[in-house]
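If you are new to this repository, start here. Below is one unmodified record pulled from the training split, so you can see the exact layout before writing a loader.
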Amino acid sequence: MEFPGYHIVPEPQLSFDAMTPKASHIHPLQGLKDFGPHSCNLMPVDEIRVAAIYPKGTRHILEGLFKEFTQSHNPKERKRYLPDYTGFETIFKSKISLTSSNICVELEGVEFSENKSPYIILSEEISNALRTMSQRKQDFDVLAIYLPESWAPAFVDVDSGFDLHDYIKGTTAMMHIPTQILREDSVISYKCRCSVMWRLSIAFYVKGGGVPWKLSSIDQETAFIGLSYSSRLNKNTGQFDFITCCSQVFDADGTGMEFIAYDASEIESRIGDNPFLTRAEMRKVIAKSLQLYQRRHAGRQPKRLIVHKTSHFKAQEIDGAFDAVNTNMELELLQIVQDQPWTATQHVNYGKEWSVPGYPVKRGIYAQIDQQEVLLWTQGQVKLGDKNNFYKEGKGIPSPLLIRRFAGKGGWDKNCQAILGLTKMNWNHDGIYDRLPVTLGYASVLAKTIKKMNELTNKPYEFRFFM
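And here is the target side for that same chain:
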């Protein structure tokens, strides 16, 4: 089979300091160093006050960690990607500080015994501390929770399905407290301090109310919705107790993300873990999502609405989505599939022979394989400099995403450009891209948390509470 020629979407530019013309870069970290974060002069975050929950006798560890934010660090890993870290205040134009001990909570009674499961003991202690901190919200901006490796037996319980990370995030989200979990192995004792500082700095800045970067090249009249589903299996009955639809709303620049967890009382059918909504339920979900968008934009609706999900759209869902939008709005329904059999390598002509070079295809290549299907490579080679062809994964042959359109019309260039841009909008790490767009990447995080916290329903939440 021979396809038509492929196309290449240029690596999307990110926008930084909103008050500086042409403050853009494809590299998120280098852009922060060169220009400062997007909100630094538009909506300044003068200081981020971090309170903490930590084991008795370990405050000095956190004090040492926060001292590192004032220092410079050189990379010991990913040297072709990580720039030097030159201090939080220098890069983010904001101060960060650990609050005094009387605003923090020191845990004294965490001792595991054979009479009680470790996760119950630890979760009870942390719950008590969180209730205390909820009374002090006006005294801090972000809550850090330090988890030493000696507590590792209580982080996950396979039999009950308990996950401490999800438990903390779900609990603090209902309290409207942004949190940063500090694991000893991945933060305190991690060898590359440059990497740690970049990751933590971005996380603290976002959770403190800042915007590090936005997309600079997408039509501002477009909105994106990511759909995901969560359901809990009752072990006694073997039936699913409830279905929750997590709908996330993004502005065209990949920001402004809010989500609502909506209990769907009617589903048309189920394939594996994927439920399919009835026409009425899909109409409600899209309508609620548009209400979130209008609330942020003075009642204005987008001219173009693009909905992403990983499962296909059934006829009832398509009809329900169209029921929810007005006739002047362009609606596109896109299924984005990770697991598919396609792959590709590039061949280069050296003289009279073709050979495969030692680096993958360029990120941003897309090839149409059907009238309503296209393959898009969101992983691959990125040119960071004249002699720096960077491949984030480091090895292996990248597989494309299969994008299948169930509603909408026109060429594929704008859709591929938007999806490629949205792979750069995950503020929960320091990487240059993800494989999935943030509409679906965040969906998996939300569904995982919602599955264990069924109280999080029918109310808008900012995603920073779940990072």
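Two things worth knowing about this chain: The CA atoms of residues 202 and 307 lie 28 Å apart. DSSP finds eleven helices and 26 strands in the chain.
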